[in-house]
Amino acid sequence: MATNTHFDRTARWLHWAMAAMILAMIFIGVGMVASLELRPWLIDLHRPLGLLVLVLALLRLWHRRRHPPPALPESLPPLQARAARASHWLLYALMFAMPLLGWAMSSAGGYRVVLPGSRVLPALAPADPALYTWLRDAHGVLGYAFFALILLHVAGALYHAWVRRDGVFEAMARRPR
User: Fold this and answer.
1) How far apart are CA 90 and CA 146, in angstroms?
2) Is 121 helix (H, G, I), strand (E, B) or coil?
3) How far apart are CA 30 and CA 144, in angstroms?
4) At residue 133, does pLDDT exceed 50?
5) What CATH architecture is 9-173?
6) What pLDDT, in 10s, does the model give residues 83-119?
7) What is d(CA 136, CA 85) in angstroms, rounded to the nearest whole number?
8) Are 51 and 21 in contact, with CB atoms under 8 Å apart?
9) pTM of the prediction?
10) Burial of residue 101 (number of CB atoms within 10 Å: 0-12, 13-18, 19+)
């Protein structure tokens, strides 16, 4: 269970594991667009990893409801506190939206989403080239937005670690002593 100043072990594990997976997903996505030779292999990696991100996002949200995060420092200006809360909820929204958009895009393109073990997931959208194009564009634009938001999140974390030194970074980076 989280103390009043730190996230618990499960929250920290989910955070860092998902951070690594999401960054990998972004770079795999860029690689899929850039390389025709590696595209099939990268897609086969991207789809199940995206679904794992979706499952872990559900687990993370469930865990967060049961183990609320530590409060932000009272010394944090109200505008920064609101921006921090908004950015976290936008990150959660994108953790759900990106895999669902990718799944729907694959469905609209007529592609099956196959899990390891050859389980085929149901289509989220009808096969439709126009819908596929729209979903592909949305997935790409939101991917760039996700990356930008991650950069802001990292910048905020470093600001708390190096400038404010208020314990916000340590709450996620270190276990309580």
Assistant:
1) 9
2) strand
3) 10
4) yes
5) Up-down Bundle (1.20)
6) 999 999 999 999 999 999 999 999 999 999 888 788 8
7) 29
8) no
9) 0.91
10) buried
